[in-house]
Predict the 3D structure of the following.
Amino acid sequence: MENLVLEIAKRSSEELKNNASRRLRKSGFIPAILYGLKSEPLNIKVELKGFKDLIKGKGISSHIFNLQLKEDGGKDKKIAALIKDFQIEPLSREYSHLDFVRIKMEQEVTIQVPILILNEEKAYGIKEEGGVLQHGLREMEIACLPKDIPDHIEIDITELKIGAILKVSDVKVENNIKILSDADEMVLTIIHATQLKEEEIAAPETEEAEPVIIKKERAEEEKEEKSK
């Protein structure tokens, strides 16, 4: 997997004051934080357009970033990091905050990796029996060295029939990768199409909860208010 080179900059004291994050976003930057490896957390900012161009077509949570921080005197400091968390503004769907965690290339990391389903259209339970695929998990938690992080975990469902349930314990990965997700958790199953419709009808309508990302943004702004 290729490492993604990303330029970052420290946020100034003015950029850490109340409502500064909102102003940063309006000026084309994503407020972010870099922490880990027992180092002091660093408040940084990332150019939105450059970040979106860099990650286009990629899963950001499973890529190593080579962060380039310009130090005083013009020299770049290089930091290996992963994105541990990110927030998206619910209306604009733009990135509103990024959490980077420092890593060492010789130490194992824990990370969520997306699941890629192979041959869905050829699956026996779908093509021959008219079933539909129902997902349980879209990603799995693994542990491995940074250099061994896969882009995704492939699962071939060609032979699966209706009623078959694939659990985490059934998923095969390389020996240098440990699966940390619950072994008994369902990854996917193939069910009758009528069963899926019945489940959709039976599902009670619930009032949509306020997105967690909004709460996170508010918490961040409250923190900025206190530090003002």
Observations:
- Residues 4-103 form a domain with the Ribosomal Protein L25; Chain P fold (CATH 2.40.240.10).
